[in-house]
Specification:
Blueprint lengths: L1 E2 L4 E2 L6 H30 L8
Antiparallel strand pairs: 1-2
């Protein structure tokens, strides 16, 4: 796996530090995706702006 912007490459045979970094980045990505879904669900429950006077 390669992260171009961060210039990081993970081959699966990396050091324990590289495995920690990959795990941390995966955890943050999962967290961000959960937040996006939560915001989308909250947005769909708001009344349409056409119903306001």
């Amino acid at each position: 796996m390669e992260f171009v912007k961060e210039s990081m490459v993970f081959t699966g045979e990396d050091s324990p530090m590289a495995n920690l970094m990959l795990s941390a980045m995966g955890a943050f990505a999962e967290f961000e995706r959960s937040l996006i879904g939560e915001r989308q669900r909250e947005g769909s429950t708001w009344p349409s702006s056409s119903h306001h006077m």
